[in-house]
Amino acid sequence: MATVYxxxxxxxxxxxxxxxxxxxxxxxxxxxxxxxxxxxxKGDPIIDSRVVDGFKVRITxxxxxxxxxxxxxxxxxxxxxxxxxxxxxxxxxxxFLKKEYKALTRNALTLTEDGPVNVLxxxxxxxxxxxxxxxxxxxxDLKEVIEVGEPSRDRLEANFKKxxxxxxxxxxxxxxxxKSAE
Length: 182
What we know:
The protein is 27% helix and 22% strand. By secondary structure, it is α+β, with helices and mostly antiparallel strands. It has one domain (4-142). Strands 1, 2, 3, 4 and 5 form a five-stranded antiparallel β-sheet that branches. Strand 4 (118-123) and strand 5 form a beta hairpin. The protein starts with a helix and ends in a 17-residue tail after the last helix.
């Protein structure tokens, strides 16, 4: 069983191996081509126009939050199946993360979806749009991690009450100010 630190370190390294250019053997650190399933991997990087897209991961409690951003032409925006397209992008990203995690740590990564993808579509110009998506997963092996937003226990309340009861109207011996009219 891996520790929380080892799981987080493995996920972070798996996501870091998804840098732009890792799909080519010449640019990868170990000579292995890695297909992620992003739009930037399609076409020739020198001849074709580059598509700006990528993802990042962050962990909060036992949750893995994957953020994806991409430019897309206006013709793709009018596609009524944009949600399905983004869901497929997330399927590819999660598949890549699980494969890289397994290669790095020799353990399996279990991710459970917490809901559908949250898509934000914005105009950059009359030709281009920018899509930002977020999807939340529950990491299966993080059981001893405290959920963010859980109420805290009142451990110090008795000490605060005892401190507040010490309040008196008596002035200390070193207070040399004149007494006020109050």
